[in-house]
Amino acid sequence: MRIPVVAANFKMNTTVAEAFELVTSMKKRLNRLSGVERVLCPPFISLVPVKEVIKGTSIKLGAQNMFYERSGAFTGEISPVMLAQICDYVILGHSERRARFGDTDEIVNKKLKAALAFGLAPIVCVGETLEQNEGGETIEVINRQVKAAFDGIDAFRDTVIAYEPIWAIGTGKAARGDQANAVIRVIRGALSKLYGDDAGQTVRIQYGGSVTASNIAEFISQPDVDGALVGGASLKAEEFLSIVEQTAKIKST
Ligand code: PEP
C-alpha cells in the first residue's frame, strides 16, 4: 500500500505574513485528514514561521530547492544541513530550476545524494517539454532523467518522484489522467530496472501540472498516481484543501 502524498509548491509567492495566513487558514482541515501525506513548501524565508504554525500537527514541511554542499562560500545558497533541521521534504529538479537556474541532470543527482545523506525526503521532478512530447520522445527523456538522478546511488531509499510534463505546468492545460498514468508506469519500470521490482512497486509517484480541485479526481483515480505536486492551486486555501480531501477519499476506497 502506497500512502498518497500531496505537496503544495508555493513557488516564489507569498510574503512571510501571507504564507503564515494561508497555512493558518488550512491547518485545521489539513491536520484532520488521514491516509494522505500533506506537505507544504513555502519560500525559504517562510519555512520557520510556517513550521511554528504546523507544530504539533501531522502536516509536513518541505523546501523548494537546496544546494548540495553542506556549508561554505556559496553566497545565497541553502544547504541540506540547514534544511534538515527544519524540513521533512525538499523538492529537487523542478523544471523551473532546470530551465532557468541551470539545474542539470548532474546537479540534480548531486542534490539527491546530499538530501538522502542528510535525512531529507526528496521529491524529484522529471518531465518532458512540449517539443519532446510532440516529437514522441517522452519515454526516452523520462528514462534518461530518472537514470541520471539516481546515478551512483546504490540502494533505493524513500524518494518521491513527481512526473510533471513541462507543457502542463502553470499553463492550465493538464495532461489526461491516463497519459499521466502511462508515463508514471514507465518511471516505475525504470526504478525496477535500477533497484528491483520492490522499489518500482513501492516508490510513490505524483502527477504535477495544472492540478485543480476540478481535475484532481481524474489523476488520483489512476492506479499508479500516488498524489500530486500542486503549484498555483496551492495558493488558494479552499482549492488546495479540496485537492487533498478528494485524494484522501478516492485513495481510501
Ligand atoms: C508545480 O509547481 O510543480 C506545478 C505543477 O505548478 P502548477 O500546478 O501551477 O501547474
Weakly predicted, low-confidence segments: none
**What CATH architecture label applies?**
Alpha-Beta Barrel
CATH topology: TIM Barrel
Radius of gyration from CA coordinates: 17 Å
Corresponding CATH superfamily = Aldolase class I
Our estimate of the beta-strand percent is 5-15%
Total domain units? 1
Structural class: alpha/beta
In total, how many beta strands?
8
Reported for the largest beta sheet, the result is: 8 strands, parallel, barrel
Kindly state the percentage of residues in helix. Answer: 40-55%
Question: What letter string, H or E per element, gives the SSE order?
Answer: EHEHEHEHHEHHEHHEHEH
Identify the CATH class: Alpha Beta
**Bound ligands, named by name, code or SMILES:** phosphoenolpyruvate
The general outline is: globular
Distance between the termini: 13 Å
Estimate the mean pLDDT confidence.
97
Q: What is the topology, as strand order, of the major beta sheet?
A: 1-2-3-4-5-6-7-8
DSSP summary: helix tally = 11
